[in-house]
Every structure is written in C-alpha cells, then in structure tokens.
Amino acid sequence: MSAVLGPLSSAKNVDGRPEGPPMRYLAMLGSVLLLMLTGVVMVLLASTWTAVIEKGDPFSLFSRHVIYVAIAVFALLFSVGRDYRRWRRLAPALLAVSAFSLLLVIMRGRVVNGSSRALDLGPFSFQPSELTKFALVVAVASFLDQRRYFLDRLDRVTVPVGVCVGILCGLVLFQPDYGTAAMIGFIVLGMMWAAGVPFRHLSVLVAPGLVVGLFAVLEKGYRMDRVKGFLFSTEDVEGAGWQATQGLISLANGGLKGTGLSSGHAQWGWVPEAHTDFVFAVVGEQLGFIGAMAVLILLGTIILTGFRTAQIAPDVFGSLLAAGISIWFLVQVMVNLLGVLRLAPITGVTLPFISYGGTSLIINALAAGLLLNIARQSQ
Question: Are 279 and 354 in contact, with CB atoms under 8 Å apart?
Fold first, then answer.
C-alpha cells in the first residue's frame, strides 16, 4: 500500500507543506477493498451448496475465488501505479485482442446453459466480453478526445463509434450474451453524451440498437422465457419466476439486521446462482437491510467519486475515461440489482467486486485502479 500512496506524499501545497492523497481517492480505494472483502465472505457462504453438488468439495469455488481476489488486488495496484495516459496507446491492441477473443469464444468456447461465453485456460477460464468493456472504454475515451472538435459531425464521430461498437456487440450477441451487449451499448452512449455528442446523433445509434435487441429477444426462446419470468413471475412461481421470487423471499427474510452469517435459505440451493448474479440476495438475507445498504453505500461511493473525478480530471482523456468507468460501474450495478429486485429481466450480470467470477472481478479491479490513478492526479 505504501507503494500506491508513496508518490502522493511528496506533493506540496502552495505553502510548502506535504500534501496527502485527496479524500475521494482514499474513499474510493477503501470502498473497493471493503467490497472485495465482503465478496470473499459472501461467496464462501453462498457457494457451499453449489460446490458440493458440482465438485463434491464445499470449498472448491471459494478457494478459486480467493485466487481471483488475489489477482484482482494485484491488478488494482498495477493500474493505480501506471499513468492512465499510457493506456491510450494500448487501445488499438486491446480492441484487436477483444475482437479476436470474441471470435474464438464463439468457435471454441465452453458452452454453459446454451451460451458460449468463456474460453477454457486449463484450471481457469477467461470471459472475453469483460475485456471488451475495458477496451472499449479506453478506446472510445481516446477517440472522443482526439476528435473533440468534431463532436457534431456524424461522419467523424458518431458513425465510426457506432460501427466499432456494433461489430463488437454483434460478436457478443453471437455467444449469445444479450445482457452484456446491452451494457456495452449503454456505456458507450453515456460516454458520448458526457463528451457532448448531440442527442439527435445518439438517437441514430439507439434506434437500430432497439430493433436488434427486440429481434434478439424474440428470436431465442430462452430469452423470451426470461422476459415472461419478469412480467409474469407471480403467475409462474415454480417455473420462469422461480429465481426472482426466491431472491425476493431471501431479501424479505433478512429484515433489518439479517439472519446472521451462514443462516437463511438462499445459500442452500433455493436461489439459483446465489454466488454469482444473485449474491445481493445472500447479502440482504444474512446481513439484513443494514448490511445491504452498507454495500450500496460503498458501491455508490465508488461511482460518485468517479463522476467527481471526471469533472476535475487533468485533461479531456482523463475526464472521459473516468466518466466511462463510472458509467460502466453504475450500469452494471443497476442491471444486477434490478434483476434481483424483480424490476427487470435477469441477465446474469455480476455485482462488481462481490460476485464470484474471475474475469469480471479482475477486469473491474483493473478499471477501478485506472479510476484511482486519475483521482490521484486530480488534486
């Protein structure tokens, strides 16, 4: 930790006194680390039943998650100590690797529940769509910065961004992963809006996106089942609405103070995917309303300090990059929570820094470190 905070200690105020790291930096860093620690505990409690059923070892998923957290902390510290401006030179390579990985996962990826989203790398797996989010945020921030004087030109800004995003989202849809494709679209639209692209130009991208999204839902039966499970969950509690209904029951069981660690019914198989996209139901049941609000406050701290960092970043690239990462975290949190609360269809999107999922956790930590580096340079 001293390596992260060390360069800041040499900063000076105008009167010559040492200047420490800005409070938003410390708040953001503390929130990320506390969320990771919470995730370790929650994954241990939520994955026991699944690990016994799948592996015969109650700690198999937990031990793997601990390794993911260790790598994520290293990724966080690495990106904190690396000047954010150096990432823009890697943007083309990151996009190329993302596109190639998405093609590879379509052809040779591991199929789970009808979707091919991950590449097997020995004992671990890699999910290219998570890297795609990171690559696009860096690339779009760099592109919008370079063409900041042409934001009102469809041919110079909107069309090139739309083509690039359309190709990558199309590859994600072929996996198929509708939730991640929609997230990528929202993130890029938010960055373009933050940069100052006219709203009428953004509508040019939104219209075809909605058409493709509607077709994607109607074209695959299981996606329509998810929509029906959301719209008619109370009418099909034991079918399409089972996961959402059990998630709400778990949250209700928690009450104000929770049932206590290792208590409740969510972790014993009643809530499918309790350790991944429904980990918030486990948090709400075992830690109660107070614990759930604490998690939301920590997530909100990261997002709000990220937007504040975007306002006072040293340059336009840093501002757009901070805005893009903050929008990314905001969209991912909202999609996950709305699914758990039965306010939107379930998409399988994880809760940042808490849910089980190696690629998602590591890439989120890498992005958080990048955001912290911008905050550190925004005295």
Answer: yes
- The CA distances from residue 69 to 41, 194, 355, 364, 370, in Å, are 12, 32, 11, 11, 17
CB atoms within 10 A of CB 357: 27
* Whether the predicted model's global pTM rises above the 0.70 cut: yes
Structure-token match 């953004």, residue found: 202
User: How far apart are alpha carbons 102 and 128 in whole angstroms?
Assistant: 6
Q: How far apart are CA 162 and CA 192, in angstroms?
A: 11
Nearest in space to 280 (alpha carbons), one of 352, 344, 215, 224: 352
Chain segment 101-150, per-residue pLDDT in tens: 998 888 877 766 656 677 777 777 888 889 999 999 999 999 999 998 98
Sheet holding 110-112, edge to edge: 110-112, 115-121, 124-126
Residue in 274, 306, 292 with CA at minimum distance from that of residue 372: 306
Q: Where are the domains of the chain?
A: 22-376
Give residue-wise pLDDT tens across range 208-238.
777 766 776 666 555 556 665 556 555 556 6
Is pLDDT at 171 greater than 70 in this prediction? Answer: yes
CB 323 within 8 A of CB 378: no
